[in-house]
Amino acid sequence: MGVPQGAPLSDLLANAYLLEFDKSVRDLCAKVGGTYFRYSDDILIVAPISLEKALEMEQDVRAAISALGKGLVIKEAKSAIHRFEDGNGRQNISVIKAFDKDDKPMPGKPFEYLGFRYDGCSVFIRDKTMSNLHRKIASVCRASAIKMVKRYQGKGADEILEMADLERLIQAFGTVEDFRSKASDYRAWTFTTYAKRASRAMGTLGKPIARQLGGLRRSIKTRLAAELKRALS
C-alpha cells in the first residue's frame, strides 16, 4: 500500500510482503493435491475438490490475507469459483460463485487469469483488454485527425485520408518490422507483437487469438476516417 500501481517496485514489494501468505495458501493447496499461483495481485488456485471444500478454501484464503497481508482485501467482485469437468473432448466450465461490483450474482462470468479468458477449449485475450485496445485506437486516431485537419485546412475528409501516413499509424498497434532484433526492448512492442507471442505460448489453445486481431488494419483506417469527419464538423 502506498506504492504507485505499475511501478517497478510494486511487484517486488508484493512478493516480499505476501511471502508468508503464499506459504500458507501453498500449504492449504498441497493438503488437497491442488496448485497455487500468484502474479502480483492476481491469484489462481486449481484443486480437485468438492464444491463444499472449494467454498471452505475460499474462506481460508480470505482469513489468510486478513492475518498475513494486513491492510489488503480480496474483493468479492474480483473473485470467483468455477467448476471444470471433462466432457466430449473439452472441459465444461460452470460458475459456482461470482458477483459483480454491485454484489449481484454473475452466473455467466467467464474464467479469466492474467489477461486471458479460457472457455474450456480455447484461450482468448479477455474482452476488457480488446475493448481497451479499441479505445486506445480511437484516442490515437482522434488526436491524429485533429492535427491533420489543422494542417490541411480547406480539404475534405476523403482528401486528407488519402494524404495520411496510415502505415505509421498502424505501426503503433501492428506488426513490428524485424521484431526479432528488437524484442529485448519492450518499447518496440505493440499490441500485435504481444498478442502473437501470447498465441505462440498457448500453442493450439491460443489459435483464436489470431482471429481476435483480424481486421485490425481495417478497423484503424475506418476509425481514422470517422475521426476526420468528426474533426471537420
Describe the structure in your own words.
It is a single chain. The protein has 233 residues and is of the alpha+beta class. Helix content is 49%, strand content 15%. It has nine helices and seven strands, in the order H-H-E-E-H-E-E-E-E-E-H-H-H-H-H-H. It has helices spanning 8-17, 19-31, 51-68, 127-151, 157-163, 166-171, 191-202, 207-212, 216-232, and strands spanning 35-39, 42-46, 80-87, 90-98, 111-113, 116-118, 123-125. The strands form three sheets. A three-stranded antiparallel sheet has the order 5-6-7. The N and C termini lie far apart (46 Å).
What descriptors fit this protein?
233 residues; alpha+beta; three-stranded antiparallel sheet; two-stranded antiparallel ribbon; 9 helices; 7 strands; 49% helix; elongated
Strand coverage percent:
15-25%
Can you count the helices?
9
Please trace the helix and strand order, writing H or E for each element: HHEEHEEEEEHHHHHH
Q: Please tally the β strands and state the result.
A: 7
Radius of gyration: 23 Å
Estimated helix fraction:
40-55%
